[in-house]
Each structure stands twice: as structure tokens, then as C-alpha cells.
Amino acid sequence: xxxxxxTTQDSAATxxxxxxxxLGLDRLSLKPAAIVAAIGILLGGILPLVDRAVSWDNxxxxxxxxxxGGGLTLAPPTGWQLESGFRVGGTSPNPSGSAAIVTSNxxxxxxxxAGFSGSPDQLLDRVNDNEFTxxxxxxxxxxxxxxxxTTGTGLNGVLESYTxxxxxxxxAVFTFPANGQGLPADTGMxxxxxxxxxxxxxxxxxxxxxxxxxxxxxxx
Amino acid sequence: xxxxxxxxxxxxxxxxxxxxxxxxxxxATGWGIPFKLVQPRNxxxxxxxxxxxxxxxxxxxxxxxxxxxxxxxxxxxILGFALYTIPWLILLAHHNRYAALPWRLLAVAFxxxxxxxxxxxxxxxxxxxxxxxxxxxxxxxxxxxxxxxTAPFTEELAKASALVLLIxxxxxxxxxxxxxxxxxxxxxLGLQIFEDVLYAFNGSAGxxxxxQVGAAISTLLSRGPxxxxxxxxxxxxxxxxxxxxxxxxNGRHRLRGLLLMLFVVVVHSCWDNATFYGxxxxxxxxxxxxxxxxxxxxxxxxxQVFRWAAPQQLAWVHALLxxxxxxxxxxxxxxxxxxxxxxxxxxxxxxxxxxHRKRAAKHIFxxxxxxxxxxxAARAQDTPAVQHARAELVRLRAA
Lengths: 220, 399
What we know:
heterodimer, A: 220 residues, alpha+beta, eight-stranded antiparallel beta sheet, 4 helices, B: mainly alpha, 2 domains, 16 helices
């Protein structure tokens, strides 16, 4: 009996009289439901669409260098779009020294600087581990053609290409010991260049020039 | 009408006025009406399913691909913030007493805040706006301003959608400003916890993923303490304000509601741009100073919101207890002190002479709390639970 009474009370609490229904739904519920749906569509749908519709207009000019924090700088290819990061000599210094992203026609270069103790080879192994075990890039394989790289200021790093069914690119890394000035701790830097298949060749010389431009203040 | 089989009753008296006031309180609060989530005829139920599905999908898309790499950091983050949630639940349960909203309803507020508001709305909108600002106004401008001009709008709107959701799902239950305050707090807690786990996950990617445990713990230590003055408090005040704005409490105080919502947007912005605002206003030590000022001001405003929102709730409790006074289960003074808030109860106990009698008075209040809870749950019907709660008061008086 008690169960029946409870069930009746349950049903009564949410019972919708026939004259209040529209397509079987309670008319009174339509307005609040529309409000919540509208908030969701605005935040989850419209704003991302607006963002995608607005393109970047922050091109790298000749001579621009990026401040990567800790005295590390790099010159991206002229004409590429700076989507994240800080120029050397800008009004505000790089607050975290964390990352920069530059892009050009679907090719992106993501530059990361963070604490890391070890050799460039170890850092490259680590980055490969992170990149190639992610489900977004399961088809990528590193081509195993690891080579060394020396910048214009004599910094040594390592470089490796990768390929996949739809993407190709390269990973370059450098490591720097703590120097008591800009770099309070051992630091690693990775530059991941990612491109749709077939696009890398056209920017190869630009990318090489960018990698050679990596510099650390106080070393020359 | 007469009342029978009532072990707590000494007189069996009934006052039509007191019964009417109780009936009005029950109608106004919806106490005892069960909360039902699955309501196929309610359009809001389908919006709930849609929002949760979209939120879950975005959450899986966010964590899934990098789970294998940063799973350790995510696991530590989930564990740490699950523990962090426990004291919050105890605190919020304390404020949800007497005129309690059903736990299942509050669980919906929490999970909507954590999944739909965070991953369907907040994450998508924040990512878009943080990308739009530098495109429109330059990277350096965006560095200083964008965070504080993004989340205060997107996240407060997303969390407040939980309140609108529950008004739609349970219009008879979500009535008072106090209900808005509690639901807002739970939705805010949901967003805060899920967002913090997301930060722990992102932090794990720092240092090239070499110190995930340390990164997750560092997120816990940095986000945990400031969380005391952020999302839970923000949306409790924001949603209380929204209730006033939409005309609860007979359409009075709409302006108060609007100002409280604006206050939350401003303090949220100050937290998110604390470095820039703090340095601009106070110099180098500014950020810390600003955070301290924010915490103090927010607590003062929260206390005031409680003072504004509680009387209606307490008046309903008083009306619910009215017939119990007529019956002789409680004295008029006890009922007035119990429904007069913490200060009134303390003042009542203070006036009583002797340690034993003070203690007995406190026990009476605790048992009155039980009776209130049972009366509300039973919509004041004479259920065995209500009779037992009354009998407990009789037993305590005899002891």
C-alpha cells in the first residue's frame, strides 16, 4: 500500500494535464528548456564558430624574434602568423616562458620551454613518447633519421622527422643547463612542426632557418 | 478534524490558523514533494540529456587521446580533488538543513556543473574567446585582459544554467532565494572540481610529462585554497541574485539581484586578472593584496546574502512548527528561537539557568530539527517517522 501511495504521489508531482501539452511536452517546460538550450548553443556552439570565422592577423615581420623566457629567443619565418607567444621588445615580457605557436597555411610550429634535466636525445625520446602514444596521432611513426643540429649561435640540438597517413612533420629539441641567470633550472625546449602530408617540403627552408635561429642570451 | 494516535500530543488541540499557515508554507516550499529526474513530458529533461551527452563527449575527447601519456597526473588529480570535495559537501549539507532540498536534485546541480557547464559550455566558450581576443585586440592586450573578460561571463552563465535547469525540472521545489543559493553552490562546486581536475591534467603535460604526480599535487595546493573564495561562492551569490532578479520574493529586490550578479562578474574578473589588476593598482605586492581584499569582501557579501535570504526560509520553518506549538509538543518560545536562526537559539540557551538545563535546551533544538525534517518530508502527515520525532521530544522533556 505504502509503495502504491508513494508511486501515486510521484506521478502526481510530474503529471501534465492533456490541455497543457504541446507535441506531448509540457508547455510550461518549454520556456526554461529553451533558455538552457540557448545558453548551451551560444557557449558551446556559436562562440567556437565565431572564433573559427575570424582569422589571425598577427604576421611575423622581418627581424621579429620571439621571447621564449629565460633569455631564449627564436626567429619564426617572416609572414607566418603568431597565434600565441611574445615578441622580443614587446611592451609586456613573456610572463611564463611557456609556449609559442606560429602557423602558415595549415603548417604549425609549437614551441615549448619547460624544466627538463637530461640530454637532447633523452628529451626527444620523451617528446616522441608523449606525441606518438596519444590517440590523436596513433598513425605517426618517427622515421628514425635522428640528426644533430647546430644553431647560428652554436647551440646543439637533435632533430627527427615523422610521418603518418595524413600528417608529417619534425621534432627538434634542445636542452640547457641551469645558468644562474635567465635559466634557474635545467631546461628543455621542443619545437614540433606539424603539417598535412605533402606540405612540409614547401616550408622546409623556412623551418630550417627558424631552427637555426634559436639563441640563448649570453651564449655566442 | 481531530488528531489521533499522536504520542507526542498532550492536548490534541488544533488551530485552524496554524494549520493554514503550515499548509501555505508546504505549498510555497514544495517540501516533501519527491524530485524526479526522468520526466519524458518535460522538455527540460531532454535538454538535460543533451547537455550531459555533449559534455561527456567533449570530456572524453579532451582527456581520451592523452590519457595514456598523462594518466598518472589525471589519476592523482581525481583522487586529490575527490578528497577535497568531502569537506565542501559537509559544509554545504550544513547549510541545506531544515528546509532541505532533496539530495538527488543537488546531485543533478553538481553533475550539470561538472560535466555540461564545464565541458559543453565553459571549455568551448573559453577556448573560443581566449583565441578571439588576441585576434581582435592583439596578443599583448589579450595577455593582460582576456582571462578576466572571459570566464566571469561564460562560466557564471554556464553555472547559472543549472539553476534554470532545476527550476524547469522541479518548479514546485525550487522556489526561494535560499534554494537558488544552495543550488548555485552545488553547481559551482561541480564546475570547480571538474575544472581543477582538468588543470591537474594540463599541469601534468608541463616539464614534458616528467613529473606528473608533483604537477598534480602542485595544482591541488595552488587551486585548493583559493577555491574557498571562487566558484562555489561565486555561483551561490550569482544564483541567489538571479532568483531575486526573476522576481522571487514577490518581485521585490530585483535591483539587488542584478547588482549581486554584477558583483560576482567583477570579483571573478579580479581573480582571473589578479596579476594585471593588482600590479596596476597597488604595485608589485598588488596581486596578493588584491586577493586578500577580494576574499574579505566576498565573505562579507556572502554573509549579507545569507541574512537576506534566510528569513523567508525561517518563516516557513516557523509556520511548519506552528501546529506543534498548539499541540504542546513545543513551546512558543522554543519554536520562535528554533526558527529565529543561530543567534536566536544561542540567546535562548543563554537565558536558561544551569548547565543541565542548557544542555537539555540544546537537545530540544536538535530534536526539533529532526521533527522539522520529518514534517517537511511527510508534508506534515502523521507518518510513523513524524510520530517518532514528536515522541522523542516528549522523551527528552521527561528525562
